[in-house]
Amino acid sequence: MLSNLDHNISSSTVQSRPLEPSPAPALEPRPPTSSDEDFFSSTSIASSSSSEDIQTNHSSPPLPPAAPPPPQIPISWPASGTISREWVNELMNAFEWASRAVPPQEFPSLLPVEVFDRLILSASKILHKEKNCVSIEGEELGRVSKVVVVGDLHGQLHDVLFLLKDAGYPGEDRIFVFNGDYVDRGAWGLETFLLLLAWKVILPHRVFLLRGNHESKYCTSVYGFEKEVSCKYGDKGKHVYCKCLGCFEGLPLASIIAGRVYTAHGGIFRSIPSTPSKRYKGKKNRKVIVDPNSTALSLGSFEELSKARRSVLDPPWEGQNLIPGDVLWSDPSMDPGLSPNKERGIGLLWGPDCTEEFLKKFGLTLIIRSHEGPDAREKRPGLGQMNEGYTIDHVVDSGKLITVFSAPDYPQFQATDERYRNKGAYIVLEPPDFDTPVFHTFDAITPRPVVNPYYDYEDVIDSDEELDMASMVPAT
């Protein structure tokens, strides 16, 4: 049954407030060592409501004029080699101010490439060590008052800054799980991604960054991020973009929260039966033959997910690498069964029966995924629209499937005068079980700074459909 009104749901409406700058240390950046290079070469007004209440929202007021420039620009890397919460606060304020006061091509005057290198290296070393599916449990949840799950952000920096302030910044008592798609479409994908990496560095066990389908070479070459980086860093743009791609490779694919909640950008995934080709007995590295369009599809296991090769930015659609494609690109359906996602040309479509099977099989009660904004959902009959920033797609005996989308008034650039004007949302999970979603919705921060798009939004498809698979990067 499809419903946007359900059990144990609370909603909130938020009011925007400007961020206040804080002083930054006047310290000189330190360039990366050769071993650093080797690393990459190897890789509100709140109101509770019952299940029958209809969510109410109020518009957020526009931001006031830009505050005076924060001190100590350009941003420097601390001489101690370790960034702090104060450093991240300064980075947030600097990015917000610069979005209104600094032309994109002067971005290195704000964040020199040497500081970029230090930040992305520090984050990448942490991310690459994490498992494909990170488990958030035990001591990590012991002192936590809430877990915040965030959907697509798509370079909408000002909305991201507001969301962080409204939800309460990450800390020892608050965990954040970001569900991918940090870049593309919006004009501040680089700032958004770097800001979240900074939070990851200072709070690696309180901030979890999962990968979205847009954290790939294919999508970023089509939807603007590659061009954005080139514009902002000029002759160093290729270097910065390659470092970002290397960091994308390290982003985990999914998470399990408190043993009860599965989060992933697209959704569930198939099992990969191994069919060795005819070779001499004892021959190593037997080829795995899998037909991605096979009608005999079945749900995969977390053991299979743990073995998937996530380091391939645009996985070949064969063998074990079908699993990352499913996790990042799949969509729910109201039709029963598990089938190839022909609309996107990659991933799966799955019905309520598969949601029930997945939850029951692994002892879960909730699936939280993202991946679909208002443009995609208007083309999906039978499923809820993304007007409020979230939908409850499946309600089954074992639990629920929820889609959350955190980019309000999306996409930033639209070819028509009539905009979707959707709200954004994030989900709060609270102890003791962390499996009862509390929805918080918010409007876009306005006015956005005037900026040119980094992709031809009038000609590029509005949703991630009809992909040119031939342009995908082949396996290496």
Detailed description of the structure:
GO terms for molecular function: metal ion binding; protein serine/threonine phosphatase activity. Residues 20-32, 61-73 have a biased composition (Pro residues). Its EC number is 3.1.3.16. There is one protein chain. The chain is built from 13 helices and 16 strands. With 476 residues, the protein is α/β, with parallel strands linked by helices. The chain has one domain (11-19, 83-279, 301-471): Purple Acid Phosphatase, chain A, domain 2, CATH 3.60.21. The strands form 4 sheets. The protein has a 6-stranded mixed β-sheet with strand order 3-7-8-12-14-13. A 5-stranded mixed β-sheet has the order 6-5-4-15-16, with helices on one face. A 3-stranded mixed β-sheet has the order 9-11-10.
SSE succession: EHEHHEHEHEHEHHHEEHHEEEHEHEEEE
Structural class, please? alpha/beta
The helix fraction, in percent, is 25-40%
CATH architecture: 4-Layer Sandwich
Keywords: Hydrolase, Manganese, Metal-binding
Protein name: Serine/threonine-protein phosphatase
Region (Disordered): 1-76
EC number: 3.1.3.16
